[in-house]
Structures are given as C-alpha cells and as structure tokens.
Amino acid sequence: MCYALFGDEGLAAAVVISSVVQISHFTLGVGCMSGDFSPRQLIKNGPILALIIGAVVLSLGLSLPDPVMKTLSMLGGITLPIMLMLLGRSVAQLSWSDRSAFGRTLMFSAWRPFIGVAVALLVTRIVPLSETETLTMLVQQAMPMAVISYMLTARYKGPADEVAMMILLSMPFSLLVVSGIWWVAN
C-alpha cells in the first residue's frame, strides 16, 4: 500500500515500520497474551530468532546456499495462505446473532484505524521524520487489524472469533481512514 502511494521512499519506511510492529507482536504481544513475559521467551521465539539470524547474515554479507534460500522462500510463501485459511474458518463459523458482541466488535473495528493514526500522529510529533515517512507511518497505523492478532489470540485461548470478526470489519474503516490521509496529503 505504501509503495503504491509513496513510491520507493514509502516502501523503505514501510519496511522499517512494519519490522518494528512485527517485533512488538512477537515480544510485547506474546507477553501480554500469555500473561508471562520474560527475556528467556525471546530465545524460544521463532520469528525473533529468524530476525536476529537474518540481521547477522545480512550484516556479515553472507549468502546462503540456493537450496536453503528456496526452502525459506517456500516456507515464507505458504505462511500467509495458512493464516488466511485459519482466519476464514473462524469467519465462516461466526455467529451474527449476539448483538452485544457484534456491537462491541464493530466499535473496536472502527476504533483500531483511528487510534492507530492518533498514536502515529503523536509519534511523528516526537520523532523527526520526513513528510513521506510521516505519511507512511500514518498509513501503516491506519491498517486493519493484522491476521497475526488472530493467530496469537487463538494460540493463547482468547476470543478468536471476535478478533476474526474485527479483522473483517476493520477493513472498510481502514480504507476510509487511509483515503482521508491520502486526500489531506494531496
């Protein structure tokens, strides 16, 4: 999305912002969802280990053998479809009859992109960023709930069905907020 809106500079900023968000999902998010955060957990956390190994390989200028790269590419390529199938299973089983749960879910779905932009505005006031970096931060934080939120909720026995519904319902709100950011920026 950021590449389409802001080009190469937007893509570079989006990769950095996305990396920070993903690290927070697998450190703070796991700590909050499990109720137990310890630095020792980071040693057992696959995505964090992959990030550290990737940073070491990249910083040392090493290149992995072609079979290893192909295997990693295939594993990375199958991850998103598997997550989407699990999400789809939960969405297919949703019950729309509980009006209070639906109202709460709808409220949080609308809240997500707006609070994300509010936090991004606060961060961009504190951290000096270029205009494109600021807009990229705003767009990134206006995105709908991430599928990884569903995966963590399901893993730690949280309200997975409600989170699945929030992912679905937060998309139109996100589209409205991102359209507003684009309209104000231009």
Features:
globular, single chain, mainly alpha, 8 helices, 186 residues, 0% strand
Proportion of helical residues: over 70%
How much strand? Answer: under 5%
Distance between the termini: 16 Å
Q: What's the story with the biggest beta sheet?
A: none
Description:
Keywords: Cell membrane, Membrane, Transmembrane, Transmembrane helix, Transport. This is AEC family transporter. It is a single chain. The protein is mostly helical and 186 residues long. It has one domain. Helix content is 82%, strand content 0%. It is globular, with a radius of gyration of 18 Å.
Q: Can you lay out the helices and strands and say which pair or pack?
A:
Blueprint (H helix, E strand, L loop, with lengths): L1 H33 L4 H5 L2 H14 L6 H27 L6 H28 L4 H11 L5 H9 L4 H26 L1
Pfam family, one: Mem_trans
Keywords: Cell membrane, Membrane, Transmembrane, Transmembrane helix, Transport
Membrane topology: Multi-pass membrane protein
Outline:
With 186 residues, the protein is mostly helical. Helices cover 82% and strands 0% of the residues. Helix 5 runs antiparallel to helix 6 (131-141) and helix 7 packs antiparallel against helix 8.
